[in-house]
Design goal:
Layout lengths: L11 H11 L14 H5 L5 H4 L5 H12 L4 H11 L3 H8 L13 E6 L2 H5 L2 H12 L20 E5 L11 E5 L5 E5 L4 H9 L35 H6 L4 H9 L1 H11 L11 H9 L6 E7 L8 H8 L1 H15 L1 E8 L4 H16 L8 E6 L9 H8 L23 E5 H5 L1 H7 L1 H5 L9 E8 L5 E6 L4 H8 L4 E6 L5 E3 L10 H6 L8 E6 L4 H15 L5 H18 L6 H19 L3 H5 L2 H8 L9
Parallel strand pairs: 1-2, 5-6, 5-8, 6-7, 9-13
Antiparallel strand pairs: 1-3, 3-4, 9-10, 11-12, 11-13
The structure holds flavin mononucleotide (FMN), iron/sulfur cluster and FE2/S2 (inorganic) cluster.
Amino acid sequence: MDIRLLDAEPTSEERAAVDAAIGPPTSAWDGGERGSDRDAHTATGGASMGGRRHELLPALQALQARVGWISEGGLGYVCERLNVPPADAWGVTTFYALFATTPRPKRVLHVCGDIACVARGAHDVDHALETRCGPPISGAPAGDSVVIDESRGAWMHSPCLGMCDMAPAAFLTVAGENPIERLYGGVTGERAVELLRMTAPHAGSSASPPIPQRGDPSLVLLKRVGEVDPTSLGAYRAVGGFRALATAIEMGPEAVIAEVVASKLGGRGGAAFPTGRKWEAVRAQAVRPHYLVCNADESEPGTFKDRLLMTHDPFAIVESMAIAGFATGCSTAFLYVRAEYPLAFARIENAVRQCREAGLFGDGFDIQLRRGAGAYICGEETALFESIEGKRGEPRRKPPFPVLVGLFGKPTVVNNVETLANVIPILLEGGAAFARTGTEQSTGTRLFCLSGAVERPGVYEVPFGTSLRSLLELAGARDLKAVLLGGAAGSFLRPDEIDLPLSLEGAHAASTTLGSGVIMAFDQSTDLHEVVRRIAGFFRDESCGQCVPCRVGTVRQEEALHRIAHGKTLGGVAGELALLEEVGVAMRDASICGLGQTAYAAVESAIKRLRLYEVTG
Ligand SMILES: Cc1cc2nc3c(=O)[nH]c(=O)nc-3n(C[C@H](O)[C@H](O)[C@H](O)COP(=O)(O)O)c2cc1C
Ligand code: SF4
Ligand code: FES
């Protein structure tokens, strides 16, 4: 590994940004002034500095937010401060899409080019920007020759921004002493040009997201959304907030876990693992400390339910984390939010602060917040641990599983935001009562993210077992051509397949998956070939590159789909489909993590269920 020090000096602006994020240096050995008596006699660093590695991402985020990109001088200063070899830090910096390593204008508009936004006019936004502001910039390093024109700003394409309910979406970042980050929905071409050209710091904000079932008395997880002030602990307590934590403390940790087991709550992050069993396993570990991680990375295209919960009911997420930490013996909890959710992050940060100040966490428990930096793979639980630890988000091989060896090598409970939110009704009603809603194997209600060709897009809460057809009708699906269930890692269904019950059993029987609750509808006007190519492009972009089947397979898959699209097949369409199958099976069977294992799923369903490529053959 290259451990040479970088020659370039940081600017005063870069120093200030890093110092504000990780504190000022304490001696000449970590980037401060030389001269104190202590410096003359003692060297600090090495192992004693290793404990600060987890501050690498926050330090890089501070540079990016202040300057708009991460220069050699800035990176070198971070390396000096945290004692990280420059080559290692460079590897981390270049892993995350929201870090730039070449000069960039301070104002950048990230325009969603993913499927739900394309289905609702994202191409028009691209066209307006391209004709009036010039071509998009690329995320890839572009050398040192980039000419910065600060008056113009820059725009670039982004994968799903988690705002498909208000598609088309865009994410604005303005670097500076008071950086701006804002997620916008309902973006038109005109609005996008305005956002990019505006020089005033305040660019307005998005309207509230649509909550189609607002006021429905059957809502459980969404009942406070839009009804209770999400910024006030008092307002949350006035509607019964923190009663569940008080109940948990009265019951004791074992009884809490017994209720969660009795509820048969399954994880809502995609894998549907029984939550109670996970909690039991961590509680039983003698090794200390235990960690709790709330996975709020939510980057599966078409998923936006966790954003809604965090933005509009943040105290409930904080309360449920306190309960989970209490039950499983975790002293420190981390909540990792994707970078593109600045409002959700601010609301959660405010909720954590108010609860901490009110003494609601009790002794020995606290919640730390972390932000992603633009990497879908960091939603995979072990990649997320790596990211919190200040490394590239590369998934670990399992076993060992996180309940034994997780964050910082310690027993770790990792749960999705929606999973944790269910803990409150479980404690208030009892696990058995909770299990009476839904089906035998899929208990409780589930949040589904409806987007695409529906009249009323948004997050819907229904009991497990509700039919896909009735949910599509509720959302006003029209003129259906296909439905994507479970997101990019899920599969397409034909209009004649939508009577399936939305439960784990129902999805399994229909050889599909509910995944993270994505239901994306496509009408007759949709070019499904383009949608499938976009999904393939997404996996190619987001593969961490660590294992060959996924790194190579996702590229080969996309290439074959492009050859079919351009009529330049190798061996005809049949030959390309055979190649896709071979590559897909290799990815599914030999990849390290779920990304590679599911990268062929949607493509396969387009081939076999929709028979999308038959007419071309
Ligand atoms: C590529 C990939 C991305 C994932 N992204 C997320 C995510 O954004 N949010 C999430 O909760 N789980 C995600 N998961 C699932 C997590 O690995 C893990 O199963 C989940 O956080 C566990 O919580 P749960 O049991 O409450 O569902 C992802 C998995 C894979 C393979
Ligand atoms: S399957 Fe893909 S994303 Fe997962 S570890 Fe391998 S290369 Fe990385
Ligand atoms: S926000 Fe654009 S597809 Fe999700």
